[in-house]
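--- STAGE predict ---
source: upstream dedup step, 1 unique chain passed
mode: sequence only
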Amino acid sequence: MSSTVLTVDLGGTRMRAAVVDREGRIQLRAEEPTPHQSDCPAAFMSLLDRVRDSGGGRGSFSSVVVGVPGRVDYIEGRLEYAPNLPHGWVDDLTTANLSGHFEAPVFLANDADLAAVGEAYFGAGRPYDDVVYVTISTGIGAGAVYDGRVFHGTRSLAEVGHTIIAIEKLLADEPATAEELGSGTALGREAAAAGLSDNGEELVALASAGDPTALAVWERTIRAAGIAIVNLAHILGPDAIIVGGGMGLNGDLVHLPVQALLDRHGPRDPARPIAVVGAELADDAGLVGGAAWELAVGLT
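--- STAGE serialize ---
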């Protein structure tokens, strides 16, 4: 049996594929922007085929794990809902459709579940038994790994991005969910409304330099994400919450306000305080997670 896994991390902004060994080491990778003008994921399949062929061909992998940004039906092996993917892709992204390209088992995984497995087995979650991973990027997602097993039912769970955190806004038919108020997309919208560049890197640089307008926009947005994280802490009670994603990987700009919210509003008097830590694997958490996916879902 091959000792490598082909892992795909399909995001709303970028799509990436990599060959990963069983120790979580990436052997080769490729990356392209996610094209939103196409109703059919031809570009995604082309990327997948290119990495497959570079990694040895159809029969070269012990498994193929495809991480997708949305709610996954793990029994049927299909994507049910993915608001950040191009229109029309959802119906095509099934294990049945993808299996024809490989002589190996194909698994469809929620991207946050997959990243949670990567961090739990190979990254910042290694010192802890129970971890929740939260990605703050184009959207907001979360996954949990408890005692080495990814936490899911028929469907992927911990869809925290779609939870409602602002009832007044909901009643006024305004953006009200954690993703609508606390994601990278929300940050860009708020920055533009404040007369700033909607480029995330530029806004982070301004906030880091102490620009008051940029800081206000950043703090308002990260507070929304932090409220969702506090809710997860109450529901799931982990040892640690690992924060990643393009917006989440901004060090103290993220960790300090989230930890402060958690300390003030999170579970009372835990025997061990819930730690807020940065993702060690950065953007590679989902790719690396493929190396341990079968372990995490109890297949090996």
